[in-house]
Amino acid sequence: MKIDKKIIKELSDYLEEFNLTELEYTEKDKKIKVSKNNVNLSNSAPSKNEKITETSNISAKNISGIQVTSPIIGTAYHAPEPGAKKFVEIGKKIKKGETVMIIEAMKTMNHVPSTSDGIVKEICVEDGQPVEFGQTIIILE
């Protein structure tokens, strides 16, 4: 099978254009998966982090602590409305079931509850940032 660099380039461009971390393209017996590791989501050059894989699972970096992940794809918000107090801050003690963030999907605001008691160690997404299903949004100690 010959690798079509044009398709790979186009898929890589879509990753950046739509702020995705992974994209898979299938045509007959050909399957191409393009992904990038977003260790730091700043405006660094993402093309250096892009890679092409043929495996279906990519292991995440080792993170110590309890991870609270996004249950859906959408846009993350730290507060119930602009200018309001944030749900969580680094160092804040939270209880299981307490809202840690809101994920907006299809004009619906979905409250994301903490999956465990703990102290907020890290907030992994910026306010207004798109998130994917299963993406870590906060880490508890």
CA distance, first residue to last residue: 48 Å
Largest sheet: 4 strands, antiparallel
Number of domains: 2
Going by CATH, the architecture of the largest domain would be: Beta Barrel
Overall helicity: under 10%
Report the structural category. mainly beta
Output the strand order for the largest sheet: 4-11-9-6
* Proportion of beta-strand residues: 35-45%
Fourth-tier CATH superfamily name of the largest domain: RNA polymerase II/Efflux pump adaptor protein, barrel-sandwich hybrid domain
Order of helices and strands: HEEEEEEEEEEE
Give the count of helical stretches.
Answer: 1
Radius of gyration: 17 Å
Overall geometric form:
elongated
CATH topology of the largest domain: OB fold (Dihydrolipoamide Acetyltransferase, E2P)
What multimeric state do the chains show? single chain
Q: What integer is the average pLDDT?
A: 78
- Tell me how many strands there are: 11
Describe, in plain words, how this protein is organized in 3D:
- The protein is mainly beta.
- The protein has 2 domains: 5-53, no CATH class; 66-140, RNA polymerase II/Efflux pump adaptor protein, barrel-sandwich hybrid domain (OB fold (Dihydrolipoamide Acetyltransferase, E2P)).
- Helix content is 9%, strand content 38%.
- The chain has 1 helix and 11 strands.
